[in-house]
Amino acid sequence: MTGASRGEEPAGARGAFGWPILVVFAGPIALVALAHFLR
Fold first, then answer.
1. Which DSSP category does 27 fall into?
2. Which of 2, 7, 15, 24 lies 20 to 30 angstroms, CA to CA, from 31?
């Protein structure tokens, strides 16, 4: 596990920063899309 975590450290850092951004951008869009689909 230590070796895998070391190899995925850069990707993990990118994911850590990318996920919040995706949530912030996709969150409102998803809510609007859901509102339209529910209607």
1. H
2. 15
In this prediction, residues 14-37 reach a mean pLDDT of 83
Domain range summary for the chain, segments of one domain joined by +: 2-38
Q: Two tokens at 12?
A: 């993990």
At 19, which amino acid appears?
W
**CA–CA distance, 29 with 12 (Å, rounded to integer):** 25
Best CA proximity match to 10, nearest among 24, 18, 25: 18
Model pTM above 0.90 = no
